[in-house]
């Protein structure tokens, strides 16, 4: 091409690119109300956003992968943790970890109950925005020291150590076939929220919830305890109850519930099929 043709090509390509960009921008704005569920932006959600900014949460945390990267991304936090857990945690984070041991620096913000409720409403709205799967791998807090290691606990991704978290994005699922235990392990890692986002299956590795290593043996001991308040008659029944009715019995001695309400999501009875719950229990029973 000569200079004139090159110039015309550049001008034309720029014009076409500008038109495509303008079209995509207009189309994005057209879809924003649906993608963000604008109809669910209540007064509480708006106040919660103000609480988020007033307390500079974004100086440490991220939403949609944007913000500071010192602390975990909170885009889906209300789906990974329940409102009961978040309320108790925000009231006093120090009750959930030992700062000297775990080296986390989440400050106590002295938020009012109203501020906490509104902040959770805001984060819940954020969690339901259609963000096309971004960020692809939110950071999950382990709060754990790996067995046989003097390495301090840290925020971990799924590849950090065996038994921590779910398989990385793109990883091929376990070929479970018709093996109910293998199928149950898949449920453990793929349920929404994933059981593995709060529980490790490695002894001594405590995350948000307790390690499930030896959970079957502990379940048997709990059933024999006079303090047991549930209705299960055997280990499988107790584990099933723990999944579908987590508040039926809260184990004493841990920060796993408040005011008789478990921090574990109570939604698995609805989000999982009966067969999936059976498979999950079959898997948990093997953790002795």
Keywords:
43% helix; 11 helices; 2 domains; elongated; 288 residues; mainly alpha; 6 strands; single chain; Cytochrome Bc1 Complex, Chain D, domain 2; two-stranded antiparallel sheet; two-stranded antiparallel ribbon
CATH level 4 superfamily of the largest domain: Cytochrome c-like domain
Strand order of the largest sheet: 1-2
Structural class comes to mainly alpha
Gyration radius over CA: 23 Å
Taken together, the total number of domains comes to 2
Per DSSP, what share of the residues sits in E-state strands of 2 or more residues? under 5%
What form results from the Cα inertia axes? elongated
Provide a count of the helices: 11
Calculate the terminal CA-CA distance, rounded to whole Å: 75 Å
Largest sheet: 2 strands, antiparallel
Overall pLDDT metric:
84
Are there runs of 5+ residues with pLDDT below 50, and where? 141-174
Which CATH class of the largest domain? Mainly Alpha
The run of helices and strands is HHEEHHHHEEHHHEEHH
Give the proportion of residues in helices.
40-55%
Q: In the CATH scheme, what's the topology name of the largest domain?
A: Cytochrome Bc1 Complex, Chain D, domain 2
What's the CATH architecture name of the largest domain? Orthogonal Bundle
Find the count of extended strands (DSSP E, 2+ residues): 6
